[in-house]
Amino acid sequence: MTAPAAPPPGDAPPRTAARVVRRVWTSYVFRRILQSVFVIWLVATITFMLMQLMPGDPIEIMAGRLNSSGMSHDQAMATAANIVAYDPNASAWSQYLEFLKGLVTLDLGNSLTSPSTSVFEHVMEYLPWTLFAVGAGIVLAAVIGLSVGMATAYRRGSVLDHTMTSVGSFLTGVPNYILIAAVVVLGYTVLGILPFLDMRGRVTAGIEPGLDPVFFGDAMFHAILPITAFAFTSTGAFMLNMKAATTEVLTEDYVTVARARGLKPGRISRNYVGRNALLPVVPQIALQLGMLVGGSIVIEQILNYPGVGQMLMQAIGNRDYPVVQAAVIILATSVVITSLIVDLLLVKIDPRIKSENQEA
Q1: pTM summary value
Q2: Which of 29, 170, 226, 244 lies 20 to 30 angstroms, CA to CA, from 118?
Q3: Of the CATH numbers 3.40.50.2000, 1.20.200.10, 1.10.3720.10, 3.20.20.20, which one belongs to the domain with range 132-350?
Q4: Residue 211 β-bridge partners
Q5: What does each C-alpha distance from 115 to 59, 63, 119, 126, 354 come to in angstroms?
């Protein structure tokens, strides 16, 4: 009997390549990266459209300022068009394509109030301070909220449970700018123990930025109130979510089996309860970050903290549209990237997502 003919040697690689492409296309990580890129593009496009609808032409605004300094109208218009980095006579589609090109190359023109500075450099001067305060607030909230939430779940029905649940609900329900305003009024105006005037700004005048304890300590001193404000709401959210997740995990069979095996309570709490209770709470980090970055505008205005939120309000007041556009896009991109990192972290720690990714 004649053996079946072997397939041509060139057929195997395409099938293998197709499987690789299909596996990559259906993988959770790849889909999340594509979603993140799409969200950033969508935010950038909506921001571009809104800037087109804003009253007043940025070039006219800039040319008017240059005119007032003695420059002729034609020269002022040409200089303004070069600073703003778009052609006012071009179609909206051409302007959009130029905008996307500038977005990819990080060249979105110059600030109208500071023509020698690109908007990207201008925003990046303020953004690290906001991310520092928001990031420190998230870390502080996570440490306090997760610890207290887990402790209250172990003591359901106790005074600690009722008290901390009420505190968590209060912190979650009341806006953080109201809470921090109350702290400032009580500590500075009423009691006189809070040096609020000395805590404003980024650092004390005369202290140069650098990798030294003096600068770091002074920056922390000035960021205490913003960090506290950002931690308020997140602490309550983490506390309540961790309590609910821990309460559910404590009823699982594997916890009962671990106790029956005589494992130490600390090991059960750490390896069985805590690790599994964290899974539904970790995505809350990205959600809280988005809320805090959005709320940074109000917090930084109240506390006179020169972050990107305060800069954005100043740019809106000055009708510095290129800076407003860049600030919104960079803030949104920061939130999207953080959300992506959190989701990729879940792939490592959540067996359900890991198995789904392997099956794909």
Answers
A1: 0.78
A2: 226
A3: 1.10.3720.10
A4: none
A5: 12, 11, 9, 17, 50
